[in-house]
Amino acid sequence: MSWEIVRESKEPCGCGLGFVLTVVRSDDWNRTDETISLQCSECVKNYVRYSYDYQRSGMIETATYWVKKEDYKAFLQSKSEVDALQVIANKDLTEYLRLHYLKPWMDLFSDVPWNKKSIWSKLKLLGLTSYSYSTFSGKIKVKDLTEFVESFVTYSSVNQITKILSINDNNIETIALSTQSVRQRYEEARKVMMGNAFS
Ligand SMILES: [Zn+2]
Fold it and tell me: Which superkingdom, per the lineage (predicted)?
């Protein structure tokens, strides 16, 4: 089995003295492998690789950029801040929803017989499950039904919950918006970083 180079490309680097080398290889089984390297002694001192995955036509692709070291440091700093704050905001929101809306939520199910089929039908009616009954039934145990129904009262379902229960509560928005300024700083840091990047 042999790997052969099927494509090779050179793009200019940040300072113009070197280049970014992309080599795509393929083997007898049509598997491909791409390596990207920065071939510039100057840029290697000032830039680091920044890769991220994104979806294109349903496929996962990886984008690779070279970003300035100091930009990357600021980006990672703001990212860890926003991630940490998001965890707290999610927790606060879940606690708030549980405290104020668990009861009205469970009341929605008060006339539903407590078996898998009836609960599944109710969730289907509310637009909260896309599972077929057999899939649902395979995933949920009868003893976990209550916990499962309660689990919708959480930050990740806040939009569905507020719509279904016709909730109009400013506190929910306040908690959700508590990460906004830090998120803006994060997005700004990313923008600066990408503005100075090359690929
Ligand atoms: Zn260079």
Answer: Bacteria
